[in-house]
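for the writeup, i need someone to sanity check this before i put it in the appendix. the sequnce is what the collaborator sent (i think, or maybe the updated version? ugh). structure was predicted straight from it, no edits. if anything looks off just tell me and ill rerun, i have time this weekend
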Amino acid sequence: MFHKENPEYNRRQVGFYTLDELVPKDHFLRKVEETIDFSFIYDLVEDSYSSDNGRPSLDPVLLVKIPLIQCFYGIRSMRQTIKDIEVNTAYRWFLGLSLDDKVPHFTTYGKNYSRRFENKEVLAHIFSHVLHHVLEAGLIDPSEIFIDGTHIKAAANNHKYKTVVIDQKAKFMSEQLEIEINLDRKKHAKKFLKPAKKGEAKPKKQSTTDPDSGWFHKGEHKEVFAYNAQVACDKHGWALAYTVEAGNIHDSQAFSALFVKLEPFSPEFIIADSGYKTPSIAKFLLEKGITPVFPYTRPRGKKDFLRPKDFVYDEHFDCYLCPENQVLTYRTTTREGYREYKSNPKICKTCPLLAICTESRQHQKVVVRHIWKDALEVCEDIRHQSGMKERYQHRKETIERLFGTAKEYHNLRYTREKGKSKMEDKVGLTLACLNIKKLVKMMVGKTCYFIQIPQYYWIVRELSVNIKKANIVFDVCLHSEGKLYRVLFQKLT
């Protein structure tokens, strides 16, 4: 039927419908509502509300679900999110609003989170709550954990900054390194080094718009203010933990804060890229009994010159041998933890390989070796073991895919938030949404999972969970021991 003569024909029709009838039965938000119970929010913010004082407040669950909608559907701003809620019946159903209810103003969300919910870490608790659901369902295998960092462009003007002197952040395991440096110097009959100055100050750019962000070199030419988000996931792509640092903080320096959150999972393997391939991290993981899986890194050196591997280290005599079988003896151990081995200039002066060996005016070759170099060599041996290269290749299916999805569909490529705390909320909310999407898809199949762990047995049937445990209290992270088994049973009736 054509409505050329009366285009308002259907627009003025009157009918009787329930809001539930207007939302498709297989809508994604219906599945979210069935999977996640958001009632824990009431207990979390109970002390921020008064039942007998002031005007009636908005439902706190409503204030949590609004940013969830924004993140689920990749809406750019809260202002646009409120506009979409006004006309979308599915959004209204998810929020518990009728067609006649007025949608809160877009500033209400920000005011509540900056005032009423201050220091409540509501969004961080959402991530923990969802992760707890995933753990209960037995969908996480913590034996292999993939970690990586990604930079998020800050909401800061690149031209509005000031140069300030900022103390350098201490490197990972710097205190233990200083102790072992002095022990190594004592072994070689050298004097102890004087205590290093705490945090050597250097001038850096600091944004006047967002001081918490850091100046980040993106590629060869582009430089922006950004944040560095460190994320860990298992081999199935479940986000397990996250941290947020300034954009100028290296991945190796941010590793310690992330590992604190990962340690309760008791991982067997940690798979990371070359940004984490440092002597300190390698030694730390090996001492913890965790197998680090790092990629191959091309030896650094000048083109057309002798490569570092051309100089062979003799552990017994603690010296290096050059390609001409000349000995490079130990001289000192630097404050950075490197032993220096130097050649005899009288011998090197007449060496036929001098032109491709060193450019020193004294005709002396210097080779350095970190005191924890042995740990890196162990990691190199691990890399050649069976199955390790295949494990590393799974990064593109796990952590890299997680970053790609978050940036492409959930607005994590850049941020409108200012401040480290708000960025932590944004990253936590985004990862929680990714876990929710994954959990919903896996729970729809109505499968039964059986997980065997030494302390307890879990049986998950559809969405109902029967847990038998011996004095175990669940927290944000589950300290699981033993090997994880999953048996997929036939579809339940």
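The chain has a mean pLDDT of 83. The chain has three domains: 28-120, 144-295+379-422, 308-375.
thx in advance!!
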